[in-house]
Design goal:
The longest helix is centred in the C-terminal third of the chain and has 26 residues, at about 80-105. Helix content is about 75%, strand content about 0%. The protein has four helices and no strands. The chain is mostly helical.
Length: about 110
């Protein structure tokens, strides 16, 4: 539930601060992908204690990746395209890992 509140706060702050820049397809695609990810995360969460150590990792990486997609200008050491690309890579790879675990492990 905390993860959902953080994602909603990121979206609200982003729309409030960067409204004109956020009317792009990439923002709506990122919001759609993080929504799909959290639906999978909450519907198919395991009950096994051995895999519970993996759950904080599966909860934090998508939020950091989502923030990197929405706010790439916050990383001043790299180009915005690099930060955004790494955000997409993190969000898609963790989504695929969760899907793999859902199908084959849990």
């Amino acid at each position: 539930m905390l993860a959902l509140m953080i994602v909603i706060a990121l979206i609200l702050v982003g729309f409030y601060v960067y409204f004109a820049e956020w009317m792009q397809r990439r923002v709506f695609a990122a919001i759609g992908l993080i929504t799909l990810y959290f639906v999978m995360y909450w519907l198919f969460a395991p009950d096994d204690r051995a895999t519970q150590r993996l759950m904080p990792l599966l909860g934090m990486i998508p939020m950091f990746s989502f923030a990197a997609i929405l706010f790439p200008q916050l990383n001043q050491h790299h180009l915005e395209e690099v930060t955004e690309g790494l955000g997409w890579f993190g969000l898609i790879s963790v989504s695929l890992i969760l899907l793999f675990f859902t199908i084959y492990v849990w």
